[in-house]
């Protein structure tokens, strides 16, 4: 039984949601944090950049959920920011691997976040699966190196699962808040690019499902079962949130001027399969976009 769960990136959107789910099940949850004394949540110290980690956390944990990484869309992609995005992911996974080697009674499971950015900025309308090749852009490179660092954990005979997370829909924070930020919403670019979305509750449940089921290991896409185009998602979200919608795409050149290289994330898209995860017995609470958005906008 996984009674003690250690989470990196616990203070983020997904981390907080997973923490609540686990605690509602009666499990004890602790975070790894650079400032553990400032957290209301039970926390242990770590600093991946300096290669420091309180080993007591690893002796305490039955399972680890690894979410830590600098926000991909938080700042413009300068050379320095790109290095931060990559290093924050690789350094954290590498530090955990190094420190877990020293622990005799190791945790039973290691569940790491990854991203559908692995497949590249734009795979068109092709349905992509876990075995498809990686892209050749910046984010694909980040995910390849991130996964390689995390996969080493399985060499320590710890069951390892990597979840390639799609676009997480949440009421407060995440992609949805950004898409609805303008006074008048509109498709981005052509609006025909696919968005492989997943409700925050479902992706959180997926991490817990992977943690608690011993038969699950390896790579899985963490996306909902029905990807939709950018135009469809924004139009539905605008309607349910009461925001005006203009059915005229924001020009790609304007997005590139505003966002720089990061514009490729919203101008491209991926149509990603959830079939492998569903094959483990996972059932979505919000597999339909209308149902997911209705739930989010009806929440107080």
Q: Topology, please?
A:
Layout: E1 4-8, H1 13-24, E2 28-33, E3 43-47, E4 52-53, H2 56-60, E5 63-66, H3 79-100, E6 109-115, E7 127-128, H4 138-151, E8 159-165, E9 167-169, H5 174-179, E10 194-195, E11 197-199, H6 200-212, E12 218-222, E13 228-229, H7 230-241, H8 252-259, H9 264-267, E14 271-272, H10 275-278, H11 289-298
Parallel strand pairs: 1-2, 1-5, 2-3, 5-6, 6-8, 7-14, 8-12, 9-11
Antiparallel strand pairs: 3-4, 10-13
Helix pairs in contact: 1-6, 3-4, 7-11
Features:
300 residues; alpha/beta; Rossmann fold; eight-stranded mixed beta sheet; two-stranded parallel ribbon; 14 strands; 37% helix; globular
Query: What's the CATH C level?
Result: Alpha Beta
In the CATH hierarchy, the third-tier topology is known as: Rossmann fold
Q: Could you name the CATH homologous superfamily?
A: NAD(P)-binding Rossmann-like Domain
Mean pLDDT: 94
Radius of gyration: 19 Å
Number of helices: 11
Based on the coordinates given, report the CATH architecture: 3-Layer(aba) Sandwich
Low-confidence segments, given as residue ranges, are none
Helix-strand topology string: EHEEEHEHEEHEEHEEHEEHHHEHH
Q: How many structural domains does the protein architecture include? A: 1
Quaternary structure of the protein: single chain
Total strand count, please?
14
Order of strands across the main sheet: 4-3-2-1-5-6-8-12
